[in-house]
Amino acid sequence: MALTVLKNETLSVAVDSHGAEMVSIQNADGREYLWNGDPLYWKRHAPILFPLVGSLKNKQYRIGDKVYPMNQHGFARDLEFAHLSATETECWFRLTESMASLLVYPYEFVLDVGYRLGESCVENLWRVHNPASRPLHFSLGGHPAFVCPQRPGERQSSYQLHFDAQGPLVSRVIGEGGLVQEAAAKTVPLADGFLPLDEHLFDDDALVFEGDQAHQVSLVNPDGVAYVTVRFDAPLFGVWSCPDKEAPFVCIEPWYGRCDAMDFDGEWSERAWGNTLNPGETFEAKFTIEIK
User: What's the pTM value of the predicted model, to 2 decimals?
Assistant: First the structure.
């Protein structure tokens, strides 16, 4: 476990080799934008979700006639990554299969995670490579949590989300076991792209948006300033916080994958929104966090 710090004139970003996880994003004045990982609310900062996004039905999946266990969001976030390279403004980490991972995920893989600083942003870079002679099936996602509210004395309910869409948006409904209720959906109305962070917004768990409904989400403070903006090409994204704890953070999560549906009974390769790499192929994706 070791920290790598990237820095330019406007931003400083710290990345832990454990999980290749960002643990801090600060501006030049030292203001922190990333959640501090206080376990009273949620112990993580910005975990990488691989090879699973969300939950599996009965916490297991099937390949042929063999069943494998896997916990929510996969295992990458809890493992030590190898440090590949670092400059003042860019770093890369790598995770590959191990004897332990093969027991729960019987695939060879190479997962590279990178971070690159721009003038007022940090790019989150992903590469998944299939070095094996058979197809590789996986999901991949980000889960960054941002400080909200920003300032002492403010309430999260005074903040808003802003989407690059007029809406209304349609969210999946998460039910028992963290699984999608396939026949249910929730309409999320927007006013000129804005959605207030009502204290009951996450009572039913995360908002889960499928099918390229938006590709930019901002956190907007009571002054009307979008102080964090997440841009992505992912076909799905989630927005989440802990409603029962009044947690002072909000997650904006680009995903290439999703939890199982309650009635799903297929194999791992048949999961909704999953990804497949043929032998020798590489999947690349990124999302950008802009700080104002």
Answer: 0.96
